[in-house]
Fold this protein.
Amino acid sequence: EMVMAQSPATLSVSPGEGATLSCRASQTVFINLAWYQQKPGQAPRLLIYGASTRLSGIPARFSGSGSGTEFTLSISGLQTEDFAVYYCQQYHTWPPAFGQGTTVQVK
Amino acid sequence: QVQLQESGPGLVKPSETLSLTCTVSGGSINPYYWSWIRQPPGKGLEWIGYLYYSGSTNYNPSLESRVTISVDTSKNQFSLNLSSVTAADTAVYYCARSFYGDFGPYHYWGQGTLVTVSS
């Protein structure tokens, strides 16, 4: 069964700075990788799919990269509303699996 | 704009069956894949299973023996039944629709409903 590992578990960043989040799959998922943002009390929000394609309406400061087993979500110039938990998810193989999440918090 | 809304009891007794319904508005059940995903308090996301509009299903092997997902196309609804629940099944349950394909990515989500398993 596919395991998705995210690092770090927590990232402390000052507003305006950049953040880099990592996601590693235990087997190749090619580019079948999505990133979600979740704020307290809310459902996850899809940001990126196909490893690097931003969903319509998602700000350009969010970018995804990678393929195979190593993926990165980069956030440039963090805004107040970007402090949240971020999850990666593979949808290449059954069952689909999420990482355990990275919390981006205010430094 | 597609909207999803979960409904069902917020409290279920141990060993009983958890039953939730997701009502889809602003779009049709056809021809998409519809999933249930859960999140225990303070923890990560777990995919439970999906239903295709035709009625075919696919479940997480960790839950497969206890899960049934069904559809009522006339009401634009699909449902989750999880039997023999324990405290470990306490979670926020989300219904979701994949953007394309069967296993995601998930573009549309319900707001989630907290189900607590307790006597």
